[in-house]
Design brief:
The chain is 33% helix and 28% strand. By secondary structure, it is α/β, with parallel strands linked by helices. The structure holds guanosine-5'-diphosphate and magnesium ion.
Length: 180
């Protein structure tokens, strides 16, 4: 039985905690804290109703095909925490980068860091109410993705959808591993 460490990255409010909670077969460990007034001034999120934010990380586990155990680490989305998830990336096989199509630029920090780290990743675009209907090509261009980087649509609240996104990442990890 193999095991792999996978990061789930993306900006605040994009659905990291939701996705890990949706797929995890163990009670997900989540360090949520009510946003302080001070934090609320600097934390910006498209989801106005959001009143908690991840201050450290989310952790979950999912077994794929009864064989491969994925340890999922949700990394803080706020840009000021990016140095922290560089440490979290140590030992990780790859990352699922969540994107909110209403605010593509909010994902640039996370995607840039994955590229800097050389960590292979797949992009999952979460479908929020009011999301503009970009084509896959438009999204790829806007996010400056390499042609072989998987791009999938995902509803983090839906188990099958979230697992499909993780499988797209795993297929990509197998592909890039075979190339070396
Ligand atoms: N429509 C929709 N809402 C989502 C999705 N993922 C998360 N949400 C909602 O968006 C809010 C923020 O999600 P959360 O998981 O806390 O984001 P995080 O900051 O990345 O951990 C929550 O109210 C979720 O219910 C999604 O794929 N689609
Ligand atoms: Mg969270």
């Amino acid at each position: 039985m193999g095991a792999a460490k996978i990061l789930v990255v993306g900006p605040l409010g994009v659905g990291k905690t939701t996705l890990i909670g949706t797929v995890s077969e163990i009670e997900p460990l989540s360090t949520e804290a009510v946003m302080t007034r001070a934090g609320a001034r600097v934390d910006t999120t498209a989801e106005q109703s959001k009143t908690t934010t991840t201050v450290a990380l989310d952790f979950g586990r999912i077994t794929i095909d009864g064989e491969l155990v994925l340890y999922l680490f949700g990394t803080p989305g706020q840009p000021r925490f990016l140095p922290a998830w560089r440490d979290l990336a140590k030992g990780a096989l790859g990352a699922l980068a969540l994107v909110d199509a209403r605010d593509l630029a909010a994902s640039f920090d996370a995607l840039g860091n994955l590229e800097d780290l050389g960590l292979p990743f797949a992009v999952a675009v979460n479908d929020f109410p009011g999301s503009p209907r970009h084509t896959a090509d438009e999204l790829r261009a806007a996010l400056d993705l390499l042609p072989d980087t998987p791009l999938v649509y995902c509803d983090a609240r839906d188990t099958a959808s979230s697992i499909r996104a993780l499988i797209a990442l795993l297929r990509h990890l197998i592909d890039v591993t075979e190339c070396v």
